């Protein structure tokens, strides 16, 4: 067979088209005589397939070809690209030889002209037989096929595991877990490989035998040493302060591994804040509970869209250091706090969409939880559940004002409300939502649970609005837990913006509210809307009535609850809240040691 002149020398050491091997991996492959990779991505829902491989000049070629195109056309295009690559490599070699030597003179001796290159023979083989050129691309590029360009062979890998997204957080602190954001195609994190490195300290001796990623001290690039951590999450220590981190990861799916990727942190590790308000609480939650218990968390995170305003900095939280209100800083604290609870259910309020996707999902997924999100306007609700304990059966989210206007469940309530036009207008203007998820036990399929999550209207004079929102919520939850899934117990978490002395709390725990309750006139006589309400549940506040769950400069009070169906669930343990001394160390919340103006409620629940 005709061979491309010089192609063996040009292509022999080319690295994989996607990702980068460490030096040790590359050496192993060379010693074993391994073929280069040609990575093919071909999915039925897309008209084109992609082909990635290395060219003669060391660059990577990424081709997009129609799946319905005959193989011969694709091979012809590859041959043209290979020829161009050879020409570039030859030109670069000539340029190097013409450069002045160290003494200032030109290199001795004439430089021979590179041999004229012909287009190389390009073939695709499957099971040692050449694939006919009229076979369509979709059928030709099979896993395990061999692409030959001149005398260089590539092993075809069709749809190997691959990272479609890989990112390290921008702000990294000692003592706080670093959870990379990653998305995979044809693979999963549990079967992928991770290896963490940190920059070698200036003047530090290289470990005996060297590190796979370390470079010589004279190199302009940083030298890296292994941390010894080969897991998805890395928690830097104080010894890492001032050093950048690097993650080498290889996607996998249990059957095979895909092309590796490396990424480095933008900024070095910074010092942490010291003791945080949740450190003592984590002593009670060191391990995941057994299958008979459900550790539940409810937490208003303080949305970034509210924290990062001039009003927040100067009026709401003037006592809080400005850097401690920044999202990158708070995310480190939130991730560490939530992962340290080892919870089975986590209901969050005031969750920014990008915080859910870029911070919470990567962090909590790495610790075994999966989540769903419901947007409100600028922020929303998130519910996470432990995958080893629960599967998600269905979601039944609603917007209160939309449900009240259109759902027959609330026809009677709406008929009462229309008698008070001013109150009706105010209620229907509110954007509050309810997130409802039905979960099923992975150990016992007969055990199902309805998990509700909400954030009621915030205004201090909005008591009657919260009463109506709660009535809509409980009617909807009754429909899910009694009509759709008869008899399943309820856990209802949220920031209800109501202290234990309010009508909303009275309605929740007593099952009714009289029409003469003072909260029906919470915004004055003009908006008074007297009505009596009832609901069917026997609800109990699992964490009782703490002195406060919200502590800011101008207010403190209990606004957050985990309501449980006391007919089906009981409380095994309530994780103590931070002490008053811890909460007020920096005057109020949020602070450098606490990421929100609310305090998380945490309790262990038990099936009756």
From TrEMBL:
EC number(s) recorded for this UniProt protein: 3.1.13.4
Residue ranges of the TM segments: none
GO molecular function, one term: metal ion binding
Record field: compositional bias (Low complexity): 211-223
GO biological process: antiviral innate immune response; cellular response to dsRNA; cellular response to interferon-alpha; cellular response to type II interferon; mitochondrial mRNA catabolic process; mRNA processing; nuclear-transcribed mRNA catabolic process, deadenylation-dependent decay; positive regulation of viral genome replication
Region described as Disordered: 86-109, 202-223
UniProt domain 2',5'-phosphodiesterase 12-like N-terminal: residue ranges: 160-270
Gene3D superfamilies, per database record: Endonuclease/exonuclease/phosphatase
One Pfam family in the UniProt entry: Exo_endo_phos
Compositionally biased spans, kind Basic residues: 86-99
Alphabetic keyword roster: Exonuclease, Hydrolase, Magnesium, Metal-binding, Mitochondrion, mRNA processing, Nuclease, Phosphoprotein, Transit peptide
Reported cofactor(s): Mg(2+)
Catalytic reaction(s) noted: Exonucleolytic cleavage of poly(A) to 5'-AMP
UniProt family annotation: Belongs to the CCR4/nocturin family.
Name of the protein in question: 2',5'-phosphodiesterase 12
């Amino acid at each position: 067979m005709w061979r491309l002149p010089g192609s063996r020398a040009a292509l022999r050491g080319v690295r994989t088209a996607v990702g980068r091997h460490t030096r040790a991996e590359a050496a192993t492959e060379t010693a074993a005589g391994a073929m280069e990779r040609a990575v093919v991505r071909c999915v039925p829902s897309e008209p084109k397939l992609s082909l990635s491989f290395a060219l003669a000049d060391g660059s990577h070629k990424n081709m997009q070809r129609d799946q319905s195109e005959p193989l011969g056309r694709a091979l012809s295009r590859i041959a043209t690209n290979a020829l161009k690559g050879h020409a570039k490599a030859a030109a670069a070699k000539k340029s190097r030889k013409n450069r002045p030597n160290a003494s200032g003179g030109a290199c001795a001796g004439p430089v021979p002209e590179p041999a004229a290159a012909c287009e190389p023979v390009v073939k695709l083989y499957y099971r040692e037989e050449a694939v006919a050129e009229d076979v369509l691309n979709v059928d030709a590029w099979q896993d395990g096929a061999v692409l030959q360009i001149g005398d260089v062979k590539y092993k075809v890998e069709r749809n190997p595991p691959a990272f479609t997204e890989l990112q390290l957080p921008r702000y990294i602190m000692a003592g706080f877990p670093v959870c990379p954001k990653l998305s995979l195609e044809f693979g999963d994190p549990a079967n992928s490989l991770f290896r963490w490195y940190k920059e070698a300290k200036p003047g530090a001796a290289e470990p005996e035998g060297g590190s796979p990623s370390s470079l010589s001290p004279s190199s302009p690039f940083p030298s890296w040493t292994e941390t010894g951590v080969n897991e998805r999450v890395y928690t830097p220590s104080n010894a890492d302060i001032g050093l950048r981190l690097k993650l080498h990861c290889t996607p996998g799916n249990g059957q095979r591994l895909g092309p590796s990727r490396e990424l480095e942190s933008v900024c070095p590790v910074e010092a942490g804040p010291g003791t945080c308000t949740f450190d003592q609480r984590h002593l009670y939650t060191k391990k995941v509970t057994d299958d008979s218990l459900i550790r539940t968390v409810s937490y208003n995170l303080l949305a970034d869209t509210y924290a990062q305003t001039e009003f927040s900095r100067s009026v709401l939280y003037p006592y809080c250091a400005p850097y401690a209100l920044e999202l990158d800083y708070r995310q480190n604290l939130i991730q560490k706090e939530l992962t340290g609870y080892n919870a089975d259910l986590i209901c969050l309020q005031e969750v920014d969409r990008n915080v859910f996707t870029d911070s919470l999902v990567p962090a909590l997924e790495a610790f075994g939880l999966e989540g769903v999100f419901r947007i409100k306007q600028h922020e929303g609700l998130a519910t996470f559940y432990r995958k080893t304990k629960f599967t998600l059966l269905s979601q039944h989210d609603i917007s209160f004002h939309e449900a009240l206007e259109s759902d027959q469940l609330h026809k009677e309530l709406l008929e009462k409300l229309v008698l008070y036009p001013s109150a009706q207008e105010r209620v229907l203007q509110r954007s509050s939502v309810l997130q409802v998820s039905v979960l099923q036990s992975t150990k016992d399929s007969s055990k199902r649970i309805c998990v509700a999550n909400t954030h009621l209207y915030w205004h201090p004079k909005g008591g009657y609005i919260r009463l109506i929102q709660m009535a809509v919520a409980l009617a909807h939850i009754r429909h899910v837990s009694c009509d759709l899934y008869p008899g399943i117990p309820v856990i209802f978490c949220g920031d209800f913006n109501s202290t234990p002395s309010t009508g909303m709390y009275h309605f929740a725990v007593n099952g009714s509210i009289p029409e003469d309750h003072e909260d029906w006139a919470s915004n004055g006589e003009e908006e008074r809307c007297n009505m009596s309400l009832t609901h069917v549940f026997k609800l109990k506040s699992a964490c009782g009535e703490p002195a406060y769950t919200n502590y800011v400069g101008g207010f403190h009070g209990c606004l957050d609850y985990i309501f449980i169906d006391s007919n089906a669930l009981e409380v095994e343990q309530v994780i103590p809240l931070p002490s008053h001394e811890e909460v007020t160390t920096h005057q109020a919340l949020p602070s450098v040691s606490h990421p929100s103006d609310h305090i998380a409620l945490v309790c262990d629940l038990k099936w009756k």
